[in-house]
Amino acid sequence: MAEHDADTGAGAGADPEVTARAERGYLLDNRQSEAGTRFEALGELFDPVTFRHIDQFGLRAGMRCWEVGAGGPSVPLGLAERVGPTGAVLATDIDTSWLADLTDLGGGVIGTRRHDVAADPPPAGGFDLVHARLVLVHVTDRAEALRRMIQALRPGGVLFLEDADPALQPLLCPDESGPEQRLANRLRSGFRALMAERGADLAYGRTLPRLLREAGLTDVRADACFPITSPACAVLEAATVRQIRGRLVAKGLATDEEIERHLANVATGRLDLATAPMVSAWGRRP
Q1: Residues 6+ positions from 143 with CB-CB distance below 8 Å
Q2: pLDDT at residue 193 tops 90
Q3: What residues have CB less than 8 Å from 128, skipping those under 6 apart?
Q4: Which top CATH class is 16-166+200-226+276-284?
Q5: CA distances in angstroms from 190 to 170, 251, 259, listed in the order given
Q6: Which spans in the chain are helix H?
Q7: How far is CA 25 from CA 22, 66, 120, 209, in A?
Q8: CA-to-CA separations, 128 to 70, 265, 284, in angstroms, rounded
Q9: Which residue among 81, 209, 247, 260 is least crowded, i.e. fewest CB within 10 A of its CB?
């Protein structure tokens, strides 16, 4: 969304700077190597969904795209392939660590910029497509971020938002058939608690269609994706737990022994792991 030890801050050998960042901001710090693993797993799970929609929007050569909260490189690269050498893609994030080595691979020009979508002015020039995936659920001032993204659209441009709704399906193991699944679901509950205390709206995804209509966009549509029993779900879960384990332990939400047991259970490949539903919603600026 450099590798440290398995903790994200609490415990012996913890990096005080990492601890301070985790306490005050985004739970899944981009500067940890687990973030790269998470980006790859999220890309495997959701890039086909994202680009299935984008390919229906009429994106073509010469168009301009803004990828908000890009995290990893897969979506900016896919957009660049579609807009070609006469188009442009701007990939922004509050931390651009994983965008440093972006190349256009023969596609459109890709620019990167550190940018806070809820605090900084929108980039100038106007965009044919503005896209954010799994971003706004973590932004405290979501309404302001939405306003700024719409402001950046050209007339007829598409705002395409994809966000999770953990409250809609809160379980890591929907088939809670034994102690391994019960432990997994308890740790997922701890993860949701950590997100909520940092201002995440765990029921945000379902609100996207209404919010787009209320903002004046037209032709609003939406659907949802709910991966389950994918190898990428296991990769994502292991990386996420390793990233937040220090916070889980510090808050009394899990013990180190429980976390190690859960990671071992995940590694067996025998748990049917799911993600929260990702709601994809889009609309056009008149």
Answers
A1: none
A2: yes
A3: 59, 63, 64, 65, 153, 154, 156, 157, 158
A4: alpha beta
A5: 11, 9, 11
A6: 16-24, 33-54, 74-83, 142-151, 179-197, 208-214, 231-250, 256-267
A7: 6, 24, 17, 27
A8: 17, 45, 10
A9: 260
Question: Among 206, 209, 170, 169, which Cα is nearest to 188's?
Answer: 170
**What confidence score (pLDDT) does residue 15 get?**
40
**Chain segment 86-132, per-residue pLDDT in tens:** 999 999 999 888 887 775 555 667 899 999 999 999 999 999 999 99
Structure tokens at 111: 């620019």
Q: How many CB atoms lie within 10 A of CB 189?
A: 15
For residue 93 the two structure tokens come to: 């994030």
3-state secondary structure of 251: coil
Burial (0-12, 13-18, 19+ Cβ within 10 Å), 179: exposed
Length of the chain counted residue by residue: 286
Annotated domain spans of the chain: 16-166+200-226+276-284
Instruction: Specify the pTM.
Output: 0.88
